[in-house]
Write a structure and sequence with these properties.
Mean pLDDT: 78
Distance between the termini: 43 Å
Low-confidence stretches: 108-116
Length: about 150
């Protein structure tokens, strides 16, 4: 029972240890388009039957309230492709805030240490009442993502 990369849904696949595992298709990688799979037991080792099409998520991406993302190990394994994955994740966060009436601007000033693959500072204006905005200025992307999670409709 090997992984059939043409099928969507869940497949029962025997791994190298001889155990049968449930592997579920997650969708195309948001960066390269490769078909991405995840093991139902959470062990998405790319050295196994899923190869570089194994789902790769960081702890930050799995926090409650984060937008759903699908990135493959192949993209997260190289610096250039990883930067594209983080850029896509940032776009999803900023788009989600804008859809909720927030404005998100990037400062030209950069901070010294990268945070979440991002070394820029953000200003976020968000409505807290009629004609009143609260400004989150000079925030790292981590703070912007926290705001996104709190602003869920």
């Amino acid at each position: 029972m090997s992984l059939d990369r043409r099928l969507n849904g869940t497949q029962q696949v025997r791994d190298f240890s001889g155990e049968t595992r449930a592997i579920t298709y997650q969708g195309p990688c948001m960066t390269c388009g490769r078909r991405v799979y995840a093991a139902d037991d959470g062990d998405n080792d790319p050295r196994g039957v899923m190869g570089l099409g194994a789902l790769y998520l960081t702890d930050e991406m799995m926090r409650p309230g984060m937008p759903p993302v699908v990135f493959c190990w192949g993209c997260m394994d190289t610096q250039h492709a990883r930067a594209r994955c983080w850029a896509r994740f940032r776009v999803l966060i900023k788009r989600g805030l804008r859809e909720r009436g927030y404005t998100v601007d990037i400062h030209e000033t950069e901070i010294q240490w990268p945070v979440w693959g991002d070394n820029r500072l953000y200003t976020v204006n968000h409505p807290i009442g009629p004609n009143v905005n609260r400004v989150l200025s000079g925030a790292t992307f981590d703070k912007v993502a926290d705001l996104y999670a709190q602003a869920q409709p």
